[in-house]
Amino acid sequence: MAFNFDDLVTGAKDVFDKAAAKAGEAIDYSKTQLDRSQLRGKIKEKYCELGKICYDMHECGDDKTGEMKKIIGEIKELSDKLEEADISVNAKKSKTCRFCGTANDAVSAYCTKCGEKL
Ligand SMILES: [Zn+2]
């Protein structure tokens, strides 16, 4: 029996490509989750910055309205991004349980709350 090295390589590459594609999907989803918590963290930081500037302004009497406006703009931008990310995550929850009304992931077979078959 002749051993065909090319076939083996092609086969292995195929398996690898499929696994990589699957991993890519999983990474995409958790990346969205990560982005959301990062965004929340950044928004918190910006609020702290804003509070510090406000404090400094009252302490020193300097007018820092310009700096504050800049940070408020950044917070708005981050909030918009977070809202978009929330919408994209919620869009994945498209199976509503007809017993308890809980929104479940589109891929779920059973309700996460009451365990009913979806
Ligand atoms: Zn349910």
Core attributes:
118 residues, mainly alpha, flat, two-stranded antiparallel ribbon, 2 helices, 3% strand, binds zinc ion
What does this structure look like?
By secondary structure, this protein is mainly alpha-helical. A hairpin with a 6-residue loop joins strand 1 (95-96) and strand 2. It has helices at 5-60, 65-92, and strands at 95-96, 103-104. It has one domain. The protein has a two-stranded antiparallel sheet with strand order 1-2. The mean pLDDT is 84. The chain is flat and about 80 Å long. It contains two helices and two strands; from the N terminus they run ααββ. Zinc ion (ZN) is lined by residues 97, 99-100, 102, 111, 113-114, 116.
SSE layout and pairing:
Layout: H1 5-60, H2 65-92, E1 95-96, E2 103-104
Antiparallel strand pairs: 1-2
Helix pairs in contact: 1-2
The chain binds zinc ion.
Number of structural units classed as domains: 1
Low-confidence stretches: none
Please report the distance between the alpha carbons of the first and last residues: 51 Å
Largest sheet descriptor: 2 strands, antiparallel
Radius of gyration: 25 Å
The level of helicity is: over 70%
Bound molecules: zinc ion
Helix count, per DSSP?
2
Assembly state of the chains shown: single chain
Number of DSSP strands? Answer: 2
Percent of sequence in beta strands:
under 5%
